[in-house]
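Regression test attached.
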Amino acid sequence: QKEVEQNSGPLSVPEGAIASLNCTYSDRGSQSFFWYRQYSGKSPELIMSIYSNGDKEDGRFTAQLNKASQYVSLLIRDSQPSDSATYLCAVRGGSQGNLIFGKGTKLSVKP
Amino acid sequence: GAVVSQHPSWVICKSGTSVKIECRSLDFQATTMFWYRQFPKQSLMLMATSNEGSKATYEQGVEKDKFLINHASLTLSTLTVTSAHPEDSSFYICSAPPGNWQETQYFGPGTRLLVL
């Protein structure tokens, strides 16, 4: 069974620091990877997608992909209290083209 | 980004009743929509894949006779929870991949169901 693993946290960082979120996946054939942010009681919101090895930057967010290690990460620079949420790593790998989600890492940014 | 809506956002019902949840793609056509369920402190789990013009595909362990899916048009999929029970209380979220759907999926705002 295809799996996506994340440290559930909580991960606590001070405001202005870098938050580092990690994710591993089991299916070596996976090609598409996503990071979603989910606030309590809300549905997931797409932050980043990444398909190639290396880094992809978008504002304060950087996604990193290492297919050889089956590892995806998300860095959040200059963390803000508004970044406090649960971050879901997702891999496209379902038989229907659906996303397979990790359990999420809860991030808390302290003012 | 693409917009997906869901209705209702909240529903409270008595045990044994049926509840219908609508998922609409507002600015694109979606031949495929996905229905996920999320229990408290758990991640999203795929329930079924809704296909326009054909039968839905259900994940293992999801009762197709209990969770009825109808993909009536290219912009609308409905999920009906029949004879709801308290254990069906959950956060139901639909998603639809637009256009070049290999790239991403956009999620609706979700429907929180509470069965008393």
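Expected vs. actual: identical. The CA atoms of residues 47 and 62 of chain B lie 6 Å apart.
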